[in-house]
Amino acid sequence: MTTKSKPAKANIEAPAATPDSTPIPALPGHATYRTVRERIALGQARRKQMKRIAHAAWSVKDRKHEPLDLLKKSTRGRVPKLIALKNERMACSPFAYFRGAVPVMAYDLSLIPNTGLLTQLCGDAHVRNLGAYAGPDGRLVFDINDFDETLVAPFEWDVKRMATSLILAGREAAVANQHCREAATAFLARYRRMMQLFSTMPVLEVARFQVHRLGEVGPVSAILLAAKRSTPLTNLLNLTEPIPAHPRQRIFRHNPPVLERVTGKEAEKVIASLTPYAETLLPERRRFLAQYRVVDVAFKVVGTGSVGLRDFCVYLEGNGRKDPLFIQIKEEAVSAYAPYVTRNALKTYHQGRRVVEGERAMQLQSDPFLGWTKIEGRDYLVRQLNDHKGSLDMTTLKPAGLMEYASVCGELLARGHARGGDCALLAGYIGNSERFDEAILQFASTYADQTEKDHAQLVKSLKAKA
Q: What is the pTM (predicted TM-score) of this model?
């Protein structure tokens, strides 16, 4: 069990045995088969290691490192000229700060006890990291869609981050704090009930489980509508412009620092990285990719937490000018949670592959062009750029919509954890009562308040440097 004075790292190789029980396997299939009842009992036994009420505990006094120092450390190796832009985006609001401050929350979570009940984490679970995108069959999918921080670790780390994000997102949308807490409560209740349901379902039904009510949820319906309009041809108009001397030909717009064309040897290196990338695709998808030709290359700034990492876009054409394909080649650093788990291989593993495997584990359907590559010794994730993508519009969020959206967050995060771990273990630990929910809600409220203070500290430091 972890202690405040010296918190133990989350052991993702082989968690310690619970009292009066045999050791819990790190992942399903890594040990002798156990029945559902036995796995639920093992989950229940974990309450002796960490009581559910203990999840409420967190104190800023436990910090040995300042948030600004952790953030500065996390920017090492990034493009220096973009660090100021990253800070500028994080300074916009407490929720924007929260999005970019995964290294801070990962550190803070490491200071408190954990259950040792492991699953594949999203790692950056927050309300804007759920969204719409095109699945392999062309139909729109709504799911968790950002896995830069993914890894196997204690399940509650994702739950705590998502609950906190709902409170901060609601506050940013000027929703009353009581409604924000109610939304986090709805998320936690849905997560708990879905995990109980998944623990009773046949394995393949869990793997295939779909949320059929998405079109009836106001905020999700709006996201799906926006994503439907975000076609490759729309991206062609938004990202490229005609060459004046050859108006039938298009190249990337030059809009520094957000979008800048890449030419010469740098472009050649980016294009060359598509060859090893193709080997990470299924053979039939490799054949589809081979029917496209490269037209242009650009450097693009994306997101908040990712600002400063190298991110390239490749514009390709298939059957003519009306058949564009935009491929994103995004640098992936080591997960912010990696220092707090004991699996040393995480630091040497290909980081693009880590993200791909985490994404495939948690998502029902993934981008058909999802893969990985290397450029000059750096690890990259490769995927389609903005193919029918859409995410939550914070400016339109109202109390009722926040409640609806929170419930969807609970259902999708529970499904992801059930796909990437052992739902019976988690269901056994969480139980049917509201004890786990209430403790996480208390943590989320406390941590949201602290995030606002940390954000204010960042704003103050930036003003002092100006």
A: 0.90
